[in-house]
Every structure is written in structure tokens, then in C-alpha cells.
Design brief:
Blueprint lengths: L7 H18 L9 H18 L2 H18 L17 E3 H18 L2 H17 L11 E3 L4 E3 L3 H15 L7 H16 L5
Antiparallel strand pairs: 1-2, 2-3
Helix pairs in contact: 1-2, 2-3, 2-4, 3-4, 4-5, 4-6, 6-7
Length: about 200
């Protein structure tokens, strides 16, 4: 809402919500077993930082993203990707695609090329393991054995599209724009009620 119609009221609400998360859950969320929760929280922090320029918000985003990356990124099973939980059973789009978005926003905020590199690593893995280039479907999860355990969901399609959008300017030769459009077409054609 703030990005569409900036106001002091909305900015204050963002600060209030950020403070509530910080005060309720602390500065580092390593006790949360769900890596997607950590990424969503880091996304909240980096987006709030872009609006408020509060360095504490940026630090919380970086520290939680880095903690999550260190415990979840794994190349031994399935050649890469982030585990959904600390149980390391499945690698899900719901953590990997938002992590691409978060890494790119961290790169934009800090200029640290490590974040841009991690975003590209993640996206390459998602495209290889969970994206169906012929249909645009983004599968929801894959287990250790390499079996898809979850199909497309609206928010996994959406975060994949958002990840493509953030990467397309930095990697034009990969044509993330076309992948994002294909994923959008899949969501529209296969996941929407078009009877009305």
C-alpha cells in the first residue's frame, strides 16, 4: 500500500509492525525450523528498510537471510536448493523463490555481489528442478529422492514470477522475462476460474 500511495500513516504502520516482530521474536530467528518463515521475515525487513532507511531493519534482513542460507543451502542432495525446514526432507518453491527475491533486494540495498550470486544460484536450481519450461508450471516441492511432492500453488507461481522480474535486468541473456510470462500464463490458464 505504501509503494502505491506513500503516507506517514502507512510508514508508521510499517515501523510499528517491524517493531512488533523484533520485540516478539528477537533479532535472529534461528529457533524457527521453517526456512520459508525466516525468508518471509527477512523480506519484510528489507522492504521496510527501503521505505524507512532504518539500518536495524537492514541488519535484521541480512542476519536472518545469512543464517537461513547457512543452514538450508545444500548441494549434496538434489544438487542445490534450500531445504524447507531444518528436518531437511523437501526443497520447496515457497522458500527458494522468495529467497531469490530477498537476495536480490539485499544486493540492491548493500551492493554486495554475494547476494546477487546466491539469487542466481537459487534460480538456476529452481529452473532445473521445479520449473516446467513447456507449460510454465512451477512445482511446489521435491523430496530427497527427486520426486515431486507438491504441484503448483498460486503463491509459488507468484514468487517465481517475482524472482524472474528481479533477475531479468541483471541477466538478460537468460530470458527470465519469458519464464515469468510463461509461469503467469500457466497460473491464468490452469489455476483461475474463468467461468465468469
Amino acid at each position: 500500500a505504501y509503494n502505491i500511495n506513500p503516507s506517514d500513516d502507512l510508514k508508521n504502520k510499517i515501523i510499528y509492525l517491524y517493531n512488533g516482530v523484533r520485540d516478539g521474536y528477537g533479532l535472529l530467528w534461528s529457533n524457527n525450523i521453517y526456512n520459508d518463515d525466516v525468508v518471509w521475515g527477512a523480506l519484510m525487513c528489507i522492504r521496510a528498510f527501503k521505505i524507512t532507511n532504518d539500518g536495524g531493519m537492514l541488519d535484521m534482513a541480512k542476519n536472518n537471510f545469512n543464517m537461513m542460507w547457512n543452514r538450508a543451502w545444500d548441494t549434496q542432495s538434489l544438487g542445490g536448493g534450500l531445504w524447507w525446514t531444518t528436518a531437511n526432507e523437501t526443497k520447496n518453491t515457497c522458500v527458494n523463490a522468495p529467497a531469490v527475491i530477498c537476495a536480490m533486494l539485499l544486493y540492491q540495498a548493500t551492493g554486495d555481489p554475494v547476494y546477487k550470486s546466491r539469487a542466481k544460484q537459487l534460480m538456476d536450481w529452481i529452473v532445473l528442478k521445479l520449473y516446467d519450461a513447456s507449460t510454465g508450471e512451477v512445482k511446489g516441492a521435491i523430496n530427497k529422492a527427486g520426486n515431486i511432492t507438491e504441484g503448483a500453488l498460486s503463491y509459488t507461481q507468484g514468487t517465481f514470477i517475482g524472482a524472474c522480474d528481479l533477475l531479468r535486468g541483471d541477466y538478460p541473456s537468460v530470458n527470465y522475462r519469458a519464464m515469468g510470462l510463461k509461469a503467469m500464463d500457466y497460473a491464468h490458464n490452469s489455476m483461475c476460474d474463468q467461468s465468469g
